[in-house]
Amino acid sequence: MGARKHNKAEERKAANKSFFVAKAQSVPTSPRKMRLVADLVRGMKVELALHALQFSAKEASNRVYKLLRSAIANWEAKNEGARIEDSGLYIQEIFVDAGRMLKRVQPAPQGRAHRVRKRSNHVTLVIGSRTRKEE
Asked: Within a domain: residue 4?
Protein backbone atom coordinates (compact mmCIF):
# COMPACT_ATOMS: atom_id res chain seq x y z
CA MET A 1 0.00 0.00 0.00
CA GLY A 2 1.31 3.43 -0.94
CA ALA A 3 2.13 6.03 1.66
CA ARG A 4 -0.61 8.39 0.55
CA LYS A 5 -3.23 5.64 0.65
CA HIS A 6 -1.99 4.52 4.05
CA ASN A 7 -2.15 8.05 5.47
CA LYS A 8 -5.69 8.51 4.13
CA ALA A 9 -6.76 5.20 5.73
CA GLU A 10 -5.29 6.27 9.07
CA GLU A 11 -7.17 9.60 8.89
CA ARG A 12 -10.40 7.76 8.14
CA LYS A 13 -9.89 5.42 11.10
CA ALA A 14 -9.23 8.35 13.42
CA ALA A 15 -12.39 10.10 12.19
CA ASN A 16 -14.46 6.93 12.70
CA LYS A 17 -13.51 6.80 16.37
CA SER A 18 -15.51 9.95 17.07
CA PHE A 19 -18.89 8.49 16.12
CA PHE A 20 -20.70 5.23 16.85
CA VAL A 21 -23.02 3.23 14.60
CA ALA A 22 -25.93 0.88 15.19
CA LYS A 23 -27.82 -0.92 12.41
CA ALA A 24 -31.10 -2.78 12.29
CA GLN A 25 -31.64 -4.95 9.24
CA SER A 26 -34.86 -6.46 7.86
CA VAL A 27 -37.15 -4.55 10.23
CA PRO A 28 -40.72 -5.63 9.35
CA THR A 29 -42.13 -2.12 8.98
CA SER A 30 -42.63 -0.17 5.80
CA PRO A 31 -39.81 2.28 5.09
CA ARG A 32 -42.26 5.16 4.76
CA LYS A 33 -43.56 4.68 8.31
CA MET A 34 -40.04 4.29 9.67
CA ARG A 35 -38.85 7.47 7.93
CA LEU A 36 -41.51 9.47 9.77
CA VAL A 37 -39.95 8.43 13.07
CA ALA A 38 -36.40 8.92 11.78
CA ASP A 39 -37.25 12.49 10.72
CA LEU A 40 -38.66 13.11 14.20
CA VAL A 41 -35.33 12.50 15.97
CA ARG A 42 -32.73 13.47 13.35
CA GLY A 43 -30.22 15.94 14.83
CA MET A 44 -31.64 15.75 18.37
CA LYS A 45 -29.62 15.31 21.53
CA VAL A 46 -29.61 11.68 22.63
CA GLU A 47 -31.48 12.29 25.91
CA LEU A 48 -34.25 14.24 24.18
CA ALA A 49 -34.50 11.65 21.41
CA LEU A 50 -34.89 8.83 23.95
CA HIS A 51 -37.78 10.65 25.61
CA ALA A 52 -39.41 11.55 22.30
CA LEU A 53 -39.24 7.94 21.09
CA GLN A 54 -40.39 6.49 24.39
CA PHE A 55 -43.57 8.55 24.44
CA SER A 56 -44.33 8.53 20.73
CA ALA A 57 -47.54 6.77 19.69
CA LYS A 58 -46.03 5.28 16.53
CA GLU A 59 -45.18 1.57 16.50
CA ALA A 60 -41.92 2.17 14.63
CA SER A 61 -40.65 4.38 17.46
CA ASN A 62 -40.13 1.32 19.68
CA ARG A 63 -37.71 -0.17 17.15
CA VAL A 64 -35.77 3.09 16.73
CA TYR A 65 -35.67 3.44 20.54
CA LYS A 66 -33.99 0.04 20.85
CA LEU A 67 -31.59 0.94 18.05
CA LEU A 68 -30.64 4.19 19.78
CA ARG A 69 -30.05 2.31 23.03
CA SER A 70 -27.75 -0.03 21.11
CA ALA A 71 -25.76 2.90 19.70
CA ILE A 72 -25.45 4.34 23.21
CA ALA A 73 -24.20 0.96 24.47
CA ASN A 74 -21.56 0.98 21.70
CA TRP A 75 -20.47 4.43 22.88
CA GLU A 76 -20.36 3.30 26.53
CA ALA A 77 -18.18 0.30 25.62
CA LYS A 78 -15.46 2.65 24.36
CA ASN A 79 -15.93 5.40 26.98
CA GLU A 80 -16.15 3.59 30.29
CA GLY A 81 -17.07 5.79 33.23
CA ALA A 82 -18.18 8.71 31.05
CA ARG A 83 -21.66 10.19 31.46
CA ILE A 84 -24.01 10.59 28.53
CA GLU A 85 -25.26 13.94 29.83
CA ASP A 86 -21.76 15.43 29.93
CA SER A 87 -20.59 14.12 26.56
CA GLY A 88 -22.92 16.12 24.29
CA LEU A 89 -24.08 13.12 22.25
CA TYR A 90 -26.52 13.75 19.42
CA ILE A 91 -27.97 11.80 16.51
CA GLN A 92 -25.55 12.75 13.78
CA GLU A 93 -27.17 10.70 11.04
CA ILE A 94 -30.12 8.38 10.69
CA PHE A 95 -31.39 6.94 7.45
CA VAL A 96 -33.82 4.27 6.34
CA ASP A 97 -33.34 2.09 3.27
CA ALA A 98 -35.85 -0.30 1.78
CA GLY A 99 -35.29 -3.96 2.62
CA ARG A 100 -36.62 -7.02 0.89
CA MET A 101 -40.28 -7.28 0.08
CA LEU A 102 -42.32 -10.41 0.77
CA LYS A 103 -44.95 -10.89 -1.90
CA ARG A 104 -48.15 -12.61 -0.85
CA VAL A 105 -51.51 -13.22 -2.49
CA GLN A 106 -54.86 -12.40 -0.93
CA PRO A 107 -58.05 -13.92 -2.34
CA ALA A 108 -60.44 -11.49 -3.98
CA PRO A 109 -64.03 -11.88 -5.19
CA GLN A 110 -64.94 -13.79 -8.35
CA GLY A 111 -61.87 -16.02 -8.35
CA ARG A 112 -59.34 -13.22 -8.58
CA ALA A 113 -56.37 -12.47 -6.33
CA HIS A 114 -54.71 -9.30 -5.14
CA ARG A 115 -51.00 -9.03 -4.49
CA VAL A 116 -49.97 -8.00 -0.97
CA ARG A 117 -46.47 -6.57 -0.56
CA LYS A 118 -45.07 -6.87 2.96
CA ARG A 119 -42.27 -4.34 3.09
CA SER A 120 -39.23 -4.25 5.36
CA ASN A 121 -36.41 -1.79 5.87
CA HIS A 122 -32.85 -1.29 7.09
CA VAL A 123 -32.15 1.50 9.59
CA THR A 124 -28.70 2.95 10.23
CA LEU A 125 -28.17 5.29 13.18
CA VAL A 126 -24.96 7.23 13.86
CA ILE A 127 -24.34 9.15 17.06
CA GLY A 128 -21.55 11.66 17.51
CA SER A 129 -20.48 14.11 20.17
CA ARG A 130 -20.50 17.87 19.95
CA THR A 131 -17.46 19.35 21.61
CA ARG A 132 -17.58 22.98 22.62
CA LYS A 133 -14.75 25.01 21.19
CA GLU A 134 -13.40 27.22 23.94
CA GLU A 135 -11.77 30.41 22.70
From this structure: no
Instruction: Calculate the alpha carbon distances from 75 to 10, 11, 19, 114, 125 in Å.
Output: 21, 20, 8, 46, 12
d(CA 134, CA 100): 47
Domain that holds residue 41: 21-129
Beta bridge partners of 98: 121
Tell me the C-alpha distance between 10 and 120, whole Å.
Answer: 36
Q: What is the pTM of this model?
A: 0.84
Is residue 73 assigned to a domain? Answer: yes
Question: Which of 36, 39, 38, 65 is closest to 53 using CA atoms?
Answer: 65
pLDDT in tens, 99-132: 999 999 999 999 999 999 999 999 999 999 887 5
Please name the residues in contact with 2: beta carbons below 8 A apart, sequence gap of 6 or more: none
Q: pLDDT tens digit string along 37-61?
A: 999 999 999 999 999 999 999 999 9
Q: What is the CATH number of the domain that holds 52?
A: 3.90.470.10
- Looking at the structure of the chain, the number of domains it has is 1
- Per DSSP, the three-state class of 88 is coil
